[in-house]
Fold these 2 entries.
Entry 1:
Amino acid sequence: VSKQVITVGRDVLAQTRIEAAVFRDEMTRRGTLLVNMISSPGAGKTALLAATARHWSTRQQGRRPQMAVLVGDLATDRDAQRLAPFVPVVQMTTGGACHLELPLVERALMALGDFKGEFLFIENVGNLVCPASHDLGEHLRVILLSTTEGDDKPGKYPKAFRTSHAMVISKLDLVPHVPFSIEAATDDAREIQPNLTVLPLCSLDGTGIDSWCDYLEAERRKLLARPECV
Ligand SMILES: Nc1nc2c(ncn2[C@@H]2O[C@H](COP(=O)(O)OP(=O)(O)O)[C@@H](O)[C@H]2O)c(=O)[nH]1
Ligand SMILES: [Mg+2]
């Protein structure tokens, strides 16, 4: 087998990055915070989105934030079915691809209609490798690490953690039953990304959901304070 090295003299992802930046600006102008949720399969992305929707929809004081979800999956619409009772949701089926790309997200947003709410979430395909390399125009990238996965994962999948703004440590209720140190996971992740916000929570009993929602609302306020947001 002979191998040939071809040098590509141009940045083939440059156009994609420009398109993602344009999409991000459009979301900023709308005042919608776009959040890209990344994790391994089963870390609890869908459960967290359902808990987030419950938290905001039962708020007693002030305005209830509006949210919608674009959910990616390899093959089924099971997550969309789980979320549909709570929030507007559009399923993106990748047909086997291990990550989402921007054109699919843009089409899904069109299918959602004229969404002008405060928070738009993208649930990425469960995978800690490929989604890390694809800018979907998000303002915030959030990585979930569940306590059942082990506290050594940040160092093993550094790009996903390096490119994230926040790390949710999910399934906090299982800490007494599994060998997982929140401190070790935090230290490992912050060695890669020192500015990472760390949010431990449990989507089933609601522990930490208020801090998570406060974090999102604070990030949206920062977005609105930007000069380009009218
Ligand atoms: N014990 C526990 N289980 C959870 C929690 N969050 C999610 N799960 C369970 O973990 C499994 C995977 O969750 P899911 O939301 O589908 O993960 P996703 O693949 O990242 O969307 C489901 O059986 C959930 O009920 C949690 O906080 N604690
Ligand atoms: Mg899911």
Entry 2:
Amino acid sequence: MESLNSSPLSKEEISEQLHAVISEFRRQLFGKTPDIFRQKGSCLRLKKTATKIAELLVEATGQQKLPIDLEPIRKRMLVHTVVEDPNLSAFVSELCPDSCGFEIKIAGKERGIRVRAAIAHEIGHTLFYDTTRLPPIRIFPNTLRTPRMDKQEWISWDFARELLLPRKLVCDTPLPNGLPSAEKMVRYAKKWRVSVAFTCHRIIRDLGLWKNSVMFTFSLRENRMDLPTVRVYRGKAFPRFRLLGREGLVTSSEFARLVGKLQELETLDDCFDWQDTLMWVQFSKYSTSPPRVVGVIELPSLGY
Ligand SMILES: [Zn+2]
């Protein structure tokens, strides 16, 4: 209880701090040339500042529980409208500056939690604009492609994950304290109105929780794992292994047998466990079209 009441900052003070950190982010950005921006490690401070902004936005809008309401947050960041654009291809969203601030365009096919993630991500992109005058002006040129990914993109995704699943609020739930489980991951993702993959990324990679386990999501195709769809989230203490490689589990006949059993899971959120002397595995189905599954592997020998 104490942690909720001990905040010494008033709403005005939080707003001032927010304003100062946003200016700091833009100052850091102004100080970089496109070449510096591309260099390895050049964005760690920016990333930290961006996640601090997300944390303060949640506080400044008085939110103390999940799921996060994005409405007051987007307004605060000058996003006046969110519209569906049937011309955008699937999974694409766009931030458009205008004389009143910004408009976010979302692909017409997007629904529910995907729209929330897209909005949170686009709010992250507003940080890359100078908003001291309207319409806001982009501080850096539109695309700055690195061999792997545009850094504006990953900073905006880091921002989005802190915004939708703030460290403080997630760590206040029983989830991180309990044992890792695929079933819990599905339950919390639904409750927090984010996708299962988004939650796995946040819990395991960003927050470093459940470090003795590895979680993975995949689509089922004819009762087999559809390999290109596999995403792996490995806890920091879990031994490195190639999930898809020769030493991996996926190619073992035992694992294939377990995946084959998934057809027996008729209802969503149903799950099953399997254990031998070395490991514990749990699967949970969380979507039917296409059939999607999240799994967790734990090695009890690592302890908890
Ligand atoms: Zn983006």
